[in-house]
Amino acid sequence: MPIIDVAVPVPLRQTFSYTSEQKLRPGVRVSVPFGRRQLIGVVTASYDDPVDDTESEVKLKAVTEVLDEQPLFDATLQALTQWLATYYHHPIGEVWATVMPTRLRKGGALSDSVPALTLTEAGQAEAQTPTLRGKKQLECIALLAQGPLASEEIKTKFSNVVLKALEEKALTTQTSIRLTEKQDWASFSLQQTPPTASTEQGVAIAAINQQASHFVPFLLDGVTGSGKTEVYLQVIEPVLKQGRQVLILVPEIGLTPQTVGRFERRFGISVGVLHSQMTDLARVKVWQQARRGELGIIIGTRSAIFTPLKRPGMIIVDEEHDESFKQQDGLRYHARDLAVKRAHTENVPLILGSATPSLESLNNALNKRYTHLTLSQRAGGASHTQLKVLDSRDQPLHAGIAQGLISIMRSHLQQGNQVLVFLNRRGFAPAVLCHHCGQTVDCKSCERPFTYHKSQGRLQCHHCGASRRMPEQCSECHSHDLQTSGIGTEQLEQGLGQLFPDIKQVRIDSDAVKGKDKLITRLDEINARKYQLLVGTQILSKGHHFPHVTLVVVLDCDGALFSADFRAAEKLAQLITQLAGRAGRASKPGEMWLQTDNPGHPLLQDLINNGFAHFARQALQERKLGALPPYSSQAIFRAEAGEAGLAANLLQQIRDCYRPSVNAAKGQFIGPLPCLIEKRQGRFRYMLVLQSQQRAALHSWLKHHLQEVEALPLASKVRWSLDIDPVDLS
Ligand SMILES: Nc1ncnc2c1ncn2[C@@H]1O[C@H](COP(=O)(O)OP(=O)(O)OP(=O)(O)O)[C@@H](O)[C@H]1O
Ligand SMILES: [Zn+2]
User: Fold this and answer.
1) Using CA positions, which residue lies closest to atom 25 of ligand 1?
2) How confident is the model at residue 553 (pLDDT cuts 50, 70, 90)?
3) Is the pLDDT of residue 318 over 60?
């Protein structure tokens, strides 16, 4: 009997062998017995009947069910999955589980259509002139009036009672809807005349077009508003014309209807969209259409990098520096790095675009591993935003803003322009403390001050999410004199309301704007000039086009200037540059003011006088001197436990496992030491950094001792993880 190897979703770094009636092709899903459970796995290899191997065959269990006739994944995705398991030192079965849409992971069939519910003629009439009394029934009718809906989706919205009632009244009936649609997208014709490319855009477009038939990585390093998206639009046109598909990755927050709309409007074809807030069914639909070559353009967030493509033609990663491309739990992959790997395997060009490239990508461009394309001018004649520093030392503050800055804001507002005020701290105040003894009100399980949210009248811990009522007195000295300390966006909004009572303002942070739809509505309203003052957190910094903003004010960036994280400077420079990029995008020039108590700080001075490109090159020099990434590779072991000693102890033992291999010439340990956020949800968090200037050496050490680590008795008691190429030390 043939023997197959199966990747099963369990935390073990191996595949498992089973017997099978027939030889199965790798990439096919099977259901197999595993211990007492039945699990869905993917075939990774298959062998002919072993002659003379009856003994081992006897011990093997048989496959219970074969779920696919054809492999779900082509050779490229299979190879990519194997690479993920090797590179991230992650169990292969769990890698497969991450790569697959949930529905397929659970064993759902890949089908052309699914059962659906639709309105009968009587149902249509009811939708026109409602007569029913049941509110839920009417809601359901109204929803179905827009078209048939998959039964499994409607079941998540309405109870069986409601659905049954409608069916019994013959208002609804069962039908099916197709999950795949034949689309002749390659024969599109342009729906808009593209603007004439600027000289720099023209150079970039020509360079990419010339190399469109094979793998070449490009870094499109273009200042904010320089027309990077326009470059994407122009270079994908010939790719689509050849009937080849384009995969575009964007940060979660940048995936708005505006972005998708730009591509749809240009080519007049429907774009497949993939993001984390979709239903399983909607996701699998796009996945399937992409796999069958029915979609020309697929735009998605991080995990869209796993989308199968029938005829891949190009991969684009927009805002490639964005941290949301790195997954922070389970399989901690970096979608940008994976995009490089995938483009290489598929042999298609790759474009990484950003106004503030990551130092990793910039380094690759500077040492010619990537082709460096630059756009130094803003498109359509818009000018660069002027950066300025406002020294707030010894200045009286109103709502946290210095008097000088208030005058500048007033003058922009009086001219009818929009002003964006950035403060990266939501809530009313970041701490509450006792005016008598100075004790702060802390979250017990994180040992950090609670943030006061005035609108809810509650305290919230921004590390673990815990929430409690505002106490009446200090827990230490019982004084009733509790006061808030510091300013958050909620208080800023209130203060600005007093300073500019006649100006309409809107606050954009995750408290005020819950859910994607609301954010999109607010962004549209901003561009329709419903508001003049925009207050918010970093949601406002990401890629949005605000043509009427002429002034950006940044409050309190001082904390980030002195962080223990060596990436803090890079992150802050990116944030400031992206924020500055929101101003002056149209005909009116823009300016940005940074309010700080450290006006002479070298980072701020460099950014202001020389710009991001210069800052980034300086920062690379510093990284080189310190032998930090990208001039070395890192891996972090993290451990967390209810007792600090346990977590640190495990990491010390891990360090001992590696010590024989890691010689000082080739690698270093840092730690074990507490993470930047030392305690969260009652658990103490520690990390051990393993670093080497030779990536291959680092990976070989990791591989050789991981089994030893897993066998440590403490390793099964303490929660731990391994993070390759970490980007976040918190
Ligand atoms: N060659 C051009 N001529 C005229 N207008 C252009 C040209 N290229 C782009 N634009 C316009 O300039 C604006 C900014 O362009 P785009 O959004 O492509 O820039 P971007 O670099 O992707 O921006 P960001 O990274 O800041 O989000 C858009 O309104 C776009 O339509
Ligand atoms: Zn907490």
Assistant:
1) 224
2) very high
3) yes
Neighbour-count burial of 663, counting CB atoms closer than 10 A to its CB (0-12 exposed, 13-18 middle, 19+ buried): exposed
Residue 54 has pLDDT above 60, yes or no: no
The pLDDT of residue 36: 92
Any idea of the CA torsion for 196, 199, 203, 206, to the nearest 10 degrees? Answer: 20
Give ion ligand 2 contacts, CB < 5 A: 443, 445-446, 461, 463-464, 466
Nearest residue by C-alpha to atom 1 in ligand 1: 197
Residues in the ligand 1 pocket, defined by CB under 6 Å: 195-198, 201, 222, 224-230, 355, 379-380, 543, 581
Q: Can you give the pTM of this predicted structure?
A: 0.90
The DSSP-derived string for 76-144 is: HHHHHHHHHHHHTT--HHHHHHHHS-HHHHTT----SEEEEEEE-HHHHHHHHS-----HHHHHHHHHH
User: What ipTM describes this predicted complex?
Assistant: 0.97
Distance, CA of 301 to CA of 187 (rounded, Å): 27
CATH number of the structural domain 633-724: 3.30.70.600
Fold of 382-426+488-625: Rossmann fold (3.40.50)
**How many whole angstroms from 68 Cα to the centroid of ligand 2?**
46
What distance in Å separates the CA atoms of residue 301 and residue 317, rounded to the nearest whole number? 10
Starting from the CA of residue 462, give the closest ligand.
2
Q: Which residue, among 139, 151, 121, 315, has the nearest Cα to 218 in the 3D structure?
A: 315
Nearest to 318 by CA among 647, 543, 608, 527: 543
Give how far the C-alpha of residue 701 lies from the chain's centroid of Cα atoms, to the nearest Å. 30
In the reported structure, the alpha carbon of residue 447 is separated from the centroid of ligand 2 by a whole-number distance in angstroms of 7
For residue 529, the CA-to-ligand 1 centroid distance in Å is 20
Q: Is 461 annotated as a binding residue?
A: yes
Range 209-219 average pLDDT: 95
What is the CATH topology of the domain spanning 185-379? Rossmann fold (3.40.50)
**Domain spans in the chain, listed from the N-terminal domain onward:** 3-105, 113-178, 185-379, 382-426+488-625, 431-485, 633-724
* 443 annotated as ligand-binding: yes
